[in-house]
Each structure stands twice: as structure tokens, then as C-alpha cells.
Design a protein that fits this description.
about 270 residues; Jelly Rolls; Arc Repressor Mutant, subunit A
Length: about 270
């Protein structure tokens, strides 16, 4: 059972989606382990797990409440039992106002929410555990996030303009020309807000466009050409670096969720 929706209007500049999932009923009595590649999504994530079963990321046990920073490659998630969780998909600029650090400090790793919020993270998880309906849990999560928003906050104009230009297909060089800051300063500002350098961010965004294209069924060569890779070999190398598998293996093995790739033999 899962619930995914837009956040309240006040949160939307910082939060793209909120969600709640509960696999514990569906998988009750199941002890078989599962293992998957979590692919770079181009976003930062907040997750509070409400079950006691351990979760391992890259073979390391992680805290029940954590922030997954922006990533430029896949990581391996594994557990032995179904889980119940609530969370949020965060936008660029959210790290500074919600956690008091820039996104670059959280990138390429998972950080315990308790390290960022102290005991407030534990108290929030306890309050979520006392609720049973996913709608109520999401309402509480949203209230906590909204309470942490500063009265006035926004992206640096150079970063905000760049993100808009990137949506329209602009290059990093073009964004720098229109940003009003030096190339070095632009990269610094972008990394602080988004978590990745601009060129790496654009590579992840192109990789994300490749996933639904592969599921749609055209040839690998056609996908490579449509997305602007220099050739199919370039496409294969990039895809393997981000996901740990080739495009063909992804097409043959991808599950219900685009960014979660089951691993056989896990």
C-alpha cells in the first residue's frame, strides 16, 4: 500500500512530493531478503522508516530516519523484511532551509536525520509511529517541514535561472553567461543548492530521461541518438556508471519502480 501526492502549497518551492508506503501487511510472514540498485534520481530524499527491521545501504546498516543526498551513481539497498516508511522528495534549495547545511555536504551519501535535527528527529518518528493512517502521517510530516521553513528563502538567482534554462535544453556555458557570476562562483553556488556540479547534474537528468525511453521499447541506438549521446558506446558507458547495469540489462530486469532495480540472487 502506498500514497504519493503533492505537498501543501507552502512546501512546494522546497518539496516536490510526499509519500507513505507500507509493505508490512502485504509481506507479512515473509523473511526472504530483497536487494536492489537504487538509481540516481536527480533529487534529494528524506525518509523515516517506521519498522525496526534493519536496512543496509552498500552493505552498511543505516539509521531509521535519514536524508539521502543528491547522487551521481547507484547504490545497493537490501533488507530481509518488508517496511513501513514516510518521506519526501526535496527540491534544490531545501537542504539549507530544512537541515541547515548546503546540499553539497549531503551529496553522495546518506546522513542520519538525528545528526541534522538532534532529538527532534526521534520525537518526530515516535509521533509518526503513534499514527496509523498514511494521510495522518503525511500531514504530520508536512507540518514538521513547514515549521522549519524560514520566513524568506530562495535560490540564488544564478542557480534558479540555470535550472530553468536547463529545462529548456541550455548548456552550462550558456547558463554561466546569463548568471552574472564567474564560472567558478556559479559552480560553487550550484553545488551548494543542488548537491552536484552542473555538468554532473545534467548527466543525471539525461540518464533519467533514458529510463522511460528504454521502457517504451525503441532500439538502444535510437535512444542514444534521441538523447544526444555521441554514440551507443557512450550511452552504454554512462548508463553503466549510473546504474551498475547495461541499458539492455535494465530493460530486461526493471521492476515496477523506474529508479529501483531488483538484483537477482539478492
Amino acid at each position: 500500500m502506498s500514497l504519493l501526492r503533492l505537498p501543501s502549497p507552502a512546501l512546494r518551492p522546497f518539496v516536490a512530493q510526499v509519500w507513505a508506503s507500507d509493505d508490512s501487511v502485504i509481506g507479512e510472514g515473509t523473511t526472504s531478503p530483497w536487494r536492489e540498485h537504487a538509481l540516481p534520481s536527480g533529487a534529494m530524499h528524506l525518509v523515516l522508516r517506521l519498522t525496526d527491521s534493519p536496512l543496509h545501504i552498500n552493505a552498511q546498516r543505516v539509521a531509521p530516519s535519514l536524508v539521502g543526498g543528491m547522487r551521481s551513481r547507484f547504490y545497493v539497498r537490501e533488507s530481509r523484511e518488508p517496511s513501513c516508511s514516510v518521506g519526501a522528495v526535496l527540491r534544490p534549495g531545501a537542504a539549507a532551509c530544512l537541515f541547515g547545511v548546503n546540499a553539497g555536504e549531503l551529496a553522495e551519501r546518506h546522513t542520519s536525520l538525528e545528526d541534522l535535527w538532534g532529538l527532534a528527529a526521534c520525537h518526530l518518528r515516535d509521533r509518526l509511529l503513534a499514527l496509523h493512517r498514511p494521510e495522518d502521517r503525511l500531514a504530520l510530516l508536512e507540518a514538521e517541514l513547514a515549521a522549519r521553513l524560514p520566513r524568506v528563502h530562495g535560490l540564488h538567482p544564478a542557480v534558479a535561472n540555470a535550472l530553468a534554462q536547463f529545462q529548456a535544453g541550455a548548456s552550462v556555458a550558456a547558463a554561466v553567461r546569463h548568471g552574472g557570476v564567474s564560472h567558478r562562483r556559479f559552480i560553487e553556488l550550484f553545488r551548494q543548492s543542488v548537491g552536484l556540479a552542473p555538468k554532473t547534474f545534467l548527466r543525471v537528468q539525461r540518464f533519467q530521461r533514458a529510463l522511460p525511453a528504454l521502457r517504451a521499447g525503441p532500439s538502444l541506438a535510437a535512444v542514444a541518438v534521441d538523447l544526444g549521446y555521441s554514440d551507443q558506446s557512450h550511452f552504454n558507458r554512462e548508463f553503466l556508471a549510473f546504474s551498475g547495469v547495461t541499458p539492455l540489462a535494465y530493460r530486461e530486469s526493471s521492476g515496477a519502480e523506474m529508479n529501483h532495480l531488483p538484483v537477482k540472487g539478492g
